[in-house]
């Protein structure tokens, strides 16, 4: 097993960093890694906004309701970016609504997520730690305003990284057999029975991680985390329209 796979198998979310600056050459290398990420149809419909202003970090952390976001040594926001190619087509006199359709938005969103994952793999290969920030969707419109994002752009995910200042446990995962199918999707008569051992494992994990706090199983978290909408996240689709994406091109 090579070192890259070993790093991936021990992936952990790192929320606290030493604050040690990452040198410019490493930043350039990481940007090159992102730039070489796979892209749908080669259209490269994504961009990065690197947050270096502490005040903007603080505002993003407040919006995302996660104070440690402001303490990330490096904070990169990966965005869907259809504006660049649209403007190129416009200069050629060949712009049309298909260029900014929902299909192309999904392509750009996929490009951004692939690039963010490539960054994380590279970061961890260097002995650094990383954390994904989906909290930028708590109020997507606010993030767009904070980052001065024009029409035809949309935030996809944030990644914070730096030198780790903590050594958390590896969080258990569902058995891969529950998430792997051959040729067609498989359903089970009782999912609770299928994840009984995992529920117990997760309860033990939280017992060890959050000493003194009430522990929860995986199944008990589903209605709490997936079963409700975080404030303003129900406005994401509305914001998507406001940003100029065409959902039903003719």
UniProtKB/TrEMBL annotation:
Keywords of the record? Flavoprotein, FMN, NADP, Oxidoreductase
Xref: SUPFAM superfamilies: FMN-dependent nitroreductase-like
Key word Membrane present: no
Q: Report domain Nitroreductase positions.
A: 10-62, 109-162
The organism's superkingdom is given as Bacteria
| Family statement drawn from the similarity comment of this UniProt entry | Belongs to the flavin oxidoreductase frp family.
Q: What is the name of this protein?
A: Nitroreductase family protein
Its lineage opens with: Bacteria, Bacillati, Bacillota, Tissierellia, Tissierellales
């Amino acid at each position: 097993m090579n070192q890259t796979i070993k790093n991936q198998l021990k992936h952990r979310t790192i929320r606290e960093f030493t604050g040690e600056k990452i040198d410019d050459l490493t930043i350039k290398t990481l940007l090159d890694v992102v730039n070489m990420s796979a892209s749908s149809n080669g259209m490269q419909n994504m961009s990065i906004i690197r947050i270096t202003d502490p005040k903007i970090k603080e505002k993003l952390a407040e919006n995302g309701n996660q104070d440690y976001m402001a303490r990330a040594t490096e904070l990169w926001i990966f965005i869907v970016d259809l504006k660049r190619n649209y403007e190129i087509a416009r200069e050629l006199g060949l712009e049309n609504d298909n260029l900014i359709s929902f299909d192309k938005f999904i392509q750009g969103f996929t490009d951004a997520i692939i690039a963010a994952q490539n960054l994380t793999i590279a970061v961890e290969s260097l002995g650094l730690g990383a954390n994904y920030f989906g909290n930028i969707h708590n109020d997507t419109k606010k993030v767009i305003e904070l980052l001065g994002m024009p029409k035809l752009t949309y935030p996809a995910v944030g990644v914070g990284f730096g030198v780790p200042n903590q050594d958390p446990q590896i969080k258990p995962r569902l058995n891969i057999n529950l998430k792997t199918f051959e040729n067609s999707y498989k359903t089970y008569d009782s999912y609770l029975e299928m994840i009984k051992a995992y529920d117990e494992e997760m309860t033990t994990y939280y017992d060890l991680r959050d000493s003194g706090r009430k522990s929860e199983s995986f199944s008990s978290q589903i209605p709490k985390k997936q079963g409700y909408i975080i404030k303003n996240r129900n406005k994401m689709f509305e914001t998507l329209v406001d940003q100029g994406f065409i959902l039903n091109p003719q």
